[in-house]
Amino acid sequence: QSALTQPPSVSGSPGQSVTISCTGTSSDVGSYNRVSWYQQPPGTAPKLMIYEVSNRPSGVPDRFSGSKSGNTASLTISGLQAEDEADYYCSSYTSSSTYVFGTGTKVTVL
Amino acid sequence: QVQLQESGPGLVKPSGTLSLTCAVSGGSISSSNWWSWVRQPPGKGLEWIGEIYHSGSTNYNPSLKSRVTISVDKSKNQFSLKLSSVTAADTAVYYCARDRRAAGWFDPWGQGTLVTVSS
């Protein structure tokens, strides 16, 4: 199984919005709503930010939102803040009853 | 709340077997959850290794399947990972995580443990 494709990096100024794409295939992202997103600041474990495409766990700011169209899922951070600077990974369930992660995106706050 | 903690040797020799344990606290490993292992080579992305249910049912990443065994010990409320025939490419931070299979997400995660493969 191949990793889901994400842009290596995105950046924005405080207060701006950034969107991270996560492109898979009809065997993963395109067929299941079991898409999730994780935030990973340097040296820390990943933290769940979005699950089932667009749901936020308790405690995650509503600045974070998710969506999906076809084989591509997206994470949008609105009103970017300095504390949002981190690596972000998407994940999807697959038709092989396995999981696959995205290649990861570094978000930089200018 | 559920917490996970990885433990095991930080250094494994090439061709040897990597063995890690994940202790689950604040909840039962026999609840309706799966339990996963995920790894991250230094400076690289996340890779799903495999998962187990308390019944012993497992699913593995096809690329690692021939070398991976995940097991569960309900009496100790923990699950384990064994990866055989390791090489330098298996050097990584290894995480354990609760796996909500029905919804497809991982939460919470352990803090991770670095395993280096070197002679």
Automatic annotation (TrEMBL), chain A:
<dbReference type="GO" id="GO:0005886">
    <property type="term" value="C:plasma membrane"/>
</dbReference>
<dbReference type="GO" id="GO:0005576">
    <property type="term" value="C:extracellular region"/>
</dbReference>
<keyword id="KW-0393">Immunoglobulin domain</keyword>
<keyword id="KW-1015">Disulfide bond</keyword>
<dbReference type="InterPro" id="IPR013783">
    <property type="entry name" value="Ig-like_fold"/>
</dbReference>
<protein>
    <submittedName>
        <fullName>IG c192_light_IGLV2-18_IGLJ1</fullName>
    </submittedName>
</protein>
<dbReference type="InterPro" id="IPR007110">
    <property type="entry name" value="Ig-like_dom"/>
</dbReference>
<keyword id="KW-1064">Adaptive immunity</keyword>
<dbReference type="Pfam" id="PF07686">
    <property type="entry name" value="V-set"/>
</dbReference>
<dbReference type="InterPro" id="IPR050150">
    <property type="entry name" value="IgV_Light_Chain"/>
</dbReference>
<keyword id="KW-0391">Immunity</keyword>
<feature type="domain" description="Ig-like">
    <location>
        <begin position="1"/>
        <end position="100"/>
    </location>
</feature>
<keyword id="KW-0472">Membrane</keyword>
<keyword id="KW-1003">Cell membrane</keyword>
<comment type="subunit">
    <text>Immunoglobulins are composed of two identical heavy chains and two identical light chains; disulfide-linked.</text>
</comment>
<dbReference type="GO" id="GO:0002250">
    <property type="term" value="P:adaptive immune response"/>
</dbReference>
<keyword id="KW-1280">Immunoglobulin</keyword>
<dbReference type="InterPro" id="IPR036179">
    <property type="entry name" value="Ig-like_dom_sf"/>
</dbReference>
<dbReference type="InterPro" id="IPR013106">
    <property type="entry name" value="Ig_V-set"/>
</dbReference>
<dbReference type="InterPro" id="IPR003599">
    <property type="entry name" value="Ig_sub"/>
</dbReference>
<dbReference type="GO" id="GO:0019814">
    <property type="term" value="C:immunoglobulin complex"/>
</dbReference>
<keyword id="KW-0964">Secreted</keyword>
